[in-house]
Every structure is written in C-alpha cells, then in structure tokens.
Amino acid sequence: MNVDSIPQPSLRLQLPPFQTNPWRQWLPAQLALLPAGPIDLDTCDWTLTCRDFASILEVFESSGHVLQQVTSHCQQTLISAAALGLKSRQSLESADQCDAPVNQDDAPNQNLSIHQGTLRSGDHLEARGHLLIVGDVNPGGSVSADGDVYIWGRLRGRAHAGRSGDQSARIVALQLRPLQLRIADFVARGPEDTPQEGLAEQACVSDGAILIEAAKAPFTALQRSRMQKDEKG
Asked: Are 215 and 230 in contact (CB under 8 A)?
C-alpha cells in the first residue's frame, strides 16, 4: 500500500468555555502549537454563525490546518457549520455545561438531525427532533420532523414540521416554494409568486393559519424559549 494513501488521523481541539476566553485570539495561538493536518473542532457551548465559521476557516487555512469536523452542543452552531458544507455532529459530552435546563414541555426533543444532499421524488426523510437539510427537496420528495424543519436550499416538495402537534414549529428554507406545507395539524399550499432573491423564508402558525414571512432568528425552539424567558426577566 502506498503510504500516501493512508488517511491522516485527525487531532481534536476544543474551544474554551463560552465567555471565558475569546476564541478569535485563542484559536490562532493554539493552532500554532499543533502540527499541520486535519483537526476535529469541538466548539463547546459557543453559538457560531456562518460568518464566524468563515473566519475560523481562514485561520485554519493560514496555519496549514484543515477543519475536518465540527462538534457542538448548540444547534445554531451545527446549522451554521452544515450550511457551509462542513461535516458536523452533535456533541454527546458535557451537554450539561452548554445550556441551562429547559422546560421539557417547551422543548420535547431538541436533537438536530442533519442531512447533506438533495432529496428527489420518492425520497422521504423524518426526524424526531429538528431536521436540517443541506440541499434541495425536489417535487415528490418529503421531509417531516417533530420540531423545526430547516432547508438550506429549495423546498419544492412537501414538508411537515411539528408533526407531534407542536404549533410553534417552523419550516425555514432559502427558497420556499413547496407543493404542501404542514405545521402540526395545519395544512397550506406553498406561495406561487417568484421568491425574492437572497431572502430566506419561513412558514409558521399565526392566528390559526400558516403564514409565510421572512425568516427570523433564533432558529430553534430551544433558543426561542430562552429569548422569551430573557424578555420576561
């Protein structure tokens, strides 16, 4: 076997706990101490955006490293990583260090399942928690989840969020032109007008019907629950 064909094992690097040390200063210094090559990055309890990951990728590239995989406790971080095409998975370690306890009635299942790739006619994908598709859902394809459904691509098939009855669930897509939308027991057809370029849209339940509007953060029921609690003080 050619030595060059042997996969190089990845190193693992964990960001410092949130608010204890700014990662923008910490990360370049740590990478400088590691040999060049692939690294699995555990982002711990940091909530990182796509812009944050763009900066992280620049730091990795300038130091001669490759970001092999992202692990995190935070769903928005996983969504951001997946949206940039990074391999990502939910961390199973120290989950109690990431987030404050949440009322289970507010968040029956906070797991985020990620699928990368387009769903074609006849394909169906379902998840018990939230579901993120990095790709399109073509006509004839369908997705369903107990929580929110996020599609970083075009939704032209069918989508069902909150299938266990959660009326606060949302369907978010970069282009929302489905054959059918379902949230809990509410059903609607997708809009027929041309979508506004560059504007992500969401479907949610408002005043007893499914409403289509510009997508709004936060992107998970867990984060919405926290924001509502913060607003109440």
From this structure: no
Helices 50-62 and 23-31, axial angle in degrees (round to 10): 30
Overall size of the chain counted in residues: 233
- Tens of pLDDT, residue by residue over 115-166, are 888 999 888 888 888 888 888 999 999 999 999 999 988 999 999 999 999 9
Cβ–Cβ under 8 Å, residues 147 and 167: no
In 64-126, which residue ranges form alpha helices assigned H by DSSP?
75-83
Longest dimension (CA), the chain: 65
State residue 195's pLDDT score. Answer: 67
CA dist 107 and 147 (Å) reads: 9
Give whole-number Cα distances, 162 to 12, 48, 201, in Å.
35, 25, 17
pTM above 0.70, yes or no: no
For residue 28, say if its preceding peptide bond is cis, omega within 30 degrees of 0. no
Q: CA–CA separation, 183 vs 12, rounded Å? A: 39
CA dihedral 128, 67, 17, 89 (to 10 degrees): 10
